[in-house]
Design brief:
mainly beta; four-stranded antiparallel sheet; Immunoglobulin-like; five-stranded mixed sheet; about 575 residues
Length: about 575
């Protein structure tokens, strides 16, 4: 049953109908409290909206479709270089051009850039004064999905928070020059933390399994901060036995400890104590000395004792008598064989032929032997190791046509079509040798002659002309001696900024030079811009020239490609 509570009221003052003052105060406080709560809520909501970008996180690239930005492949640690990985995810849309500008804090110098796209047209530069990295890449083979663009390796710095920003955005365009809408996750903050080291008592979960505050092995946590597993301790010679060489295994993790000599009269004797390996220095008995990890009757005095096979009066190993034991072919040691009276080339512990080390301890043809006892293996063609007994070469593969045949014999490699003529620049021609191994000395064309397709002709070579959008590109190599030149001529006047990229290629399409030129004020009808590259023409096999504007929707574009073969 609930207990009834009696309400007690104070008497009102005499001759009045007013309520008690305390009652009036309680009623008046309710609107006041509601007003205070409302004001606090409004202020909190305003702060949340103002600082939402800071509350969300560090604005690193998340990898979602239609996003772009940067991430850290591994945490940034004090004093150690760290990598900023620039990426974009364009989903199913084709990407043919990528550009970005990334500003970095004043505490840093320019990073070491690593381009990951390897597109035919690219440019990476850094303005140390402006603290800005600029990147441009163009391709004729569009890609989609997640794109790994570049890695920027910044030098190590002190602990702190550092803000990076894609200041002019992050632009990716389709082959049609139409921009792909991206959510650029910027700015982002790199947190540089204290470096964790093994032995500091703090477990670095990225590299450490444990950290007990020291770098000592055998205490359950190794000197490299890896967990050690205790195993049963085993002593092969049964304990403190200086007359026999013992081997002890056990510890954290399991290790092997061999009895060893400490000078002539002492032995470092390993044994098991409390299921852990331990060691003690023991003195050899009178008339004996320590040899091979055990106390033995003195060997090397020139007298063959009952426990000795030989005694040549010295303690030298490998001279036919090692530790008063006769050396022989098949004992597993490479030494002077007392039976054959010759030095072993190998010794695999047996006297069997055709296993790489013969019965006479000689290395057999086509085999390679190493270690003691010798471990022998066949030397196959294609392993990158030259077997001079059967191979003329070994380039690490068994492919013909690369200078070293599938049977490791030297090949005569052709680099051109035998006897065929080709051009050496514009004013000379050269003939391939009859065996295809190279070219004969170039022959200069006559005055006012030009080489085309391996033939010198007085007929003026017609320049290569390509019509683009609002521009015409004309090859001008013959007009400007010793330079690779291209004319950019507008078909209509325009004032937008354009960029001219000239890429020179050598043998096997190797990029020799990339040059970019900006025309900031555009071009007027009736004018011409000459884009040039100063490079030795004898090495140039082809060139590619691309011109485009920098607007969101490009309206100026042109591309010229020329071969000099």
């Amino acid at each position: 049953m609930k207990r009834k509570t009696q309400k007690v009221y104070k008497s009102l003052p005499p001759h009045t109908n007013e309520a008690h003052p305390i009652a009036n105060a309680g009623q008046a406080s309710k609107p006041f409290i509601i007003a205070v709560i409302t004001i606090v809520a409004v202020v909190a909501l305003t702060l949340l909206l103002l600082f939402s970008d800071r509350l969300v996180g560090k604005a690193f690239y998340t990898g979602g479709a239609n996003t772009a930005g940067a991430s850290l492949p591994s945490p940034a640690v004090e004093g150690q270089p760290f990598t900023v990985a620039v990426k974009a995810n364009v989903g199913n849309q084709p990407a043919a051009a990528i550009s970005f500008e990334l500003t970095f804090p004043s505490e840093f110098i320019c990073p070491q850039p690593l381009d990951l796209l390897n597109w035919p047209v690219k440019s990476i530069s850094c303005d140390i004064a402006q603290k800005t990295v600029k990147y441009v890449a163009i391709t004729n083979s569009p890609v989609s999905g997640e794109i790994n663009i570049a890695n920027l390796v910044f030098p190590g710095t002190s602990v702190g928070s550092y803000e990076f920003n894609f200041v002019r955005g992050f632009e990716v365009k389709k082959p049609t020059k139409e921009p792909i809408a991206l959510d650029v996750q910027s700015p982002f903050t790199v947190e540089v933390n204290l470096a964790l080291v093994c032995g500091d008592g703090i477990v670095d979960e990225t590299t450490e399994q444990c950290d007990d505050g020291n770098v000592v092995n055998g205490d359950g946590c190794s000197s490299t901060c890896q967990t050690e597993l205790q195993v049963q301790c085993i002593d092969s010679d049964g304990g403190l036995n200086p007359s026999a060489k013992g081997i002890v295994t056990g510890g954290f993790p399991s290790q092997q400890f061999d009895d060893a000599c400490e000078g002539d009269g002492y032995v470092q004797e390993w044994y098991c104590l409390n299921n852990l390996p331990d060691e003690q220095s023991l003195t050899c008995p009178s008339g004996s000395t320590c040899q091979g990890g055990a106390c033995r009757v003195v060997c090397g005095n020139g007298v063959v004792n009952s426990n000795e096979q030989c005694d040549d009066g010295n303690q030298v190993s490998g001279d036919g008598c090692t530790s008063c034991v006769a050396d022989y072919c098949g004992d597993g040691d490479i030494n002077l064989d007392t039976t054959l009276q010759s030095m072993d080339e190998c010794d695999d512990g047996n006297n069997v032929n055709s296993d790489g080390c013969s019965a006479q301890c000689l290395q057999e043809t086509g085999w390679s032997c190493d270690s003691e006892p010798s471990i022998c293996s066949l030397v196959p063609c294609g392993d990158g190791i030259l077997d001079e007994t059967s191979e003329q070469c070994d380039d690490g593969n068994v492919v013909n046509g690369d200078g070293c045949s599938a049977t490791c014999q030297t090949e005569q490699q052709q680099i051109c079509s035998p006897n065929q003529w080709s051009c050496e620049g514009l004013n000379a021609k050269k003939q391939c040798k009859s065996d295809g191994s190279g070219y004969n000395t170039p022959v200069s064309c006559a005055v006012n002659e030009f080489c085309e397709a391996g033939v010198c002709s007085a007929q003026l070579i017609q320049p290569l002309i390509v019509q683009g959008t609002k521009i015409t590109l004309t090859d001008a190599d013959t007009e400007v001696p010793a330079l690779v030149a291209t004319k950019v001529t507008p078909t209509v006047s325009f004032s937008t900024e354009i960029t001219v990229y000239t890429v020179l290629y050598g043998q096997n399409n190797k990029v020799l030079s990339i040059k970019s030129e900006k025309i900031e004020t555009g071009l007027a009808l009736g004018t011409t811009y000459l884009a040039t590259v100063n490079y030795p023409m004898t090495n140039v096999k082809s060139k590619s020239v691309i011109v485009y504007d920098v607007e969101q929707n490009p309206t100026v574009f042109g591309q010229l490609q020329k071969s000099y073969e």
